[in-house]
Amino acid sequence: MSQPPPRDDVKACCAAAYSSDVVTLLLGDSYHPGGTALTRRLADALALRPDDGVLDVASGRGTTALLLAETYGVRVDGVDYSPANTALARGTAEAAGHADRVSFTTGDAERLPYPDGDFTALVCECALCTFPDKCRAAAEFARVLRPGGRVGITDVTADTDRLPAELTGLAARIACVADALPLAGYVDLLSAAGLRTLRTEPHDAALLRMIDQIEARLNLARMTAPDRLAAADIDLAAAPTVLAAARSAVADGVLGYALLIAEKPPAGRP
Amino acid sequence: MTAPRKQDRDEVFVEFTKSICPVCKTPVDAQVNIREDKVYLRKRCREHGGFEALVYGDAEEYLASARFNKPGTIPLTFQTEVRDGCPSDCGLCPEHKQHACLGIIEVNTGCNLDCPICFADSGHQAGDGYSITHDQCARMLDAFVESEGEPEVVMFSGGEPTIHKHILDFIDLAQERPIRNVNLNTNGIRLATDRNFVAELGKRNQVPGRSVNVYLQFDGFDERTHREIRGRDLRRFKEKALANCADAGLTVTLVAAVERGLNEHELGAIIEYGVDHPAVRSVAFQPVTHSGRHVPFDPLNRLTNPDVIRLVGEQLPGWFQKGDFFPVPCCFPTCRSITYLLVDGEPGARTVVPIPRLLQVEDYLDYVSNRVMPDDGIREALEKLWSASAFMGTDTTEEQLRATAEALDCADACGIDLPEAVKSLGEKAFMIVVQDFQDPYTLNVKQLMKCCVEEITPDGRLIPFCAYNSVGYREQVREQMSGVPVADVVPNALPLADRLAPTPYGSRMLRPATDEETTA
Lengths: 270, 520
Hints:
The complex is a heterodimer. By secondary structure, chain A is an alpha/beta fold. Chain A has eleven helices and seven strands. Chain A is 44% helix and 20% strand. In chain B, strands 5, 6, 7, 8, 9, 10, 11, 12, 13, 14, 15 and 16 form a twelve-stranded mixed β-sheet that branches. In chain B, strands 1-2-3-4 form a four-stranded antiparallel β-sheet. In chain B, strands 17-18 form a two-stranded antiparallel sheet.
């Protein structure tokens, strides 16, 4: 197996993959497991109030940002590593008539382009696990939040020592798998950044659903455009093995999906 | 002495609604309860006592489906007024919540079969049935157009519509009007034996902007299935009918009436047969409607949509898993569930992709919490596919399948041209519909008020299909049209067995009281 690439390469590579259309083909434009139902559950747990400022880290093509603005009446800033996503998300916001309440910026989660204490809440869906320097990202989350502000995270959980070999390559890394942490690892990470976890929930079924979706889309692509898959370097022959490994990893509790809500301590309290 | 202990009920009470007494059809209060993950409807008639029936075999899904309930569309006209309340004012009355996605015209009561199972109580009974005239058909179609503007589909049914001597004229009448598609609901005997007739249908299927599709009764492959459900072994007729349809370029839906203990083991085989047959593009499974004529049944152990879906999954385990079928939002979501498959390759080396696995359908068809979705038209496409007016072979359904596949793609951004490839997808798409029609036991006005499948009557009313078959409208229309008195039909349910007597058509009615009983 090849050596893991240097970190910056991974980050650029992840962002490139996430903004590439192969990933769109396989996962749709709202890449995270659980779809809008889980986004809504996350937002409910954040106790959002109208006109709160919310930051969406790794905002993709803007689906979540628009949902939050529309459903909860909040103002949303979205930041994504990919300029292509930023452009697409802006277009969607304009088309939906929400350009005044939702804005998008290209930027790095490890160096968020916002001042300290700027947001009441922050969401990050299925992305923290792909950030090479997760500690730095968590510290940035804490920095841009106001005291008492909340972070809502959904992400892949993985007991990395027990991950099967099929799920540790670069492709798996891009698909939010190989670099994920166990649930306790996320709690520790947030805690080290001064964010206190209030609640965690397992949502493993959402991950199984995503695996099904990837398989279905691979099959669709095989029916309609096999040349395209080959051009995108997708190894169809290997796909069943990787998907089967992913499913058994979920069944064995090695791989999962979780929702976390954490809080930046209110002012005057440690 | 110990104090008496209060006991908990063994069921969860979830709805208070209205239904009818299955014996006298009088509207009565009803309640819906959940016991052991199944949903039951219970009611009591002052005169005829208590009744209970299984209405949904999966309580979780019954409750979860509530959000897939699309706000109805108001038809252009209503045909009746609100007077006595649902289900006595059909229809449609202004309290009805949905327009007609599908209109049905029964052209006759006569049939070239006398099936032991027939909700329409049709057959060879000479002399006391009816056939509609050319003028009546025109008026019925006009009533449909007046109500819908440009109706998507009209279905000709019966009786057996292909034995009506004017059936081709009736199709012409429909095609002269702004009605996009005609469905012919048939047992297939004439399609098997009269190639000229099939060619005439094929010709009408080529009319630009119009289609004629065949809705073929097809219950399975066992001889016993045919004998018990149809009274005759029709296997060779079905095969021939399908071959003739394929030759004439007609698209066929295989329609199976499914009954416990008869053909519930044949569902997977029907799907596979359909997928492999060049004429067949969809299968519809309908748990036997216990209206009209049918074999004795246990209302507490009948088949419901989740039961059929479970059986399909068990019989084709490599094809289906839980969640592959999705409720139809235009009618009440517990009435009908649909899935579409994309199937490629030969038996043994097949790739099967259920469309609901490609995207989160529930994100698009959730009408309770989703007000906005940046969706590139996916929602609109899915609404047309998950609809009672969706039929394979119609332009609308084919277009929406393409739109969905294209929306999943990225042709614009990635510079690779997929639409060409997607064009051929239509031929790989296969539709499976599961529809549990209501009967006098299961009727719930909550569902009925949003029904979008309507029987068009010769006097120009549009009556929800399940009201027509359950409440007594069918008997009234037959009596008016034939001039022969028609008894009120009562379900041939096991708990009623000792109170029933046969009608001249093979259905059951309340046994007339004997002298002894009346004087007692």
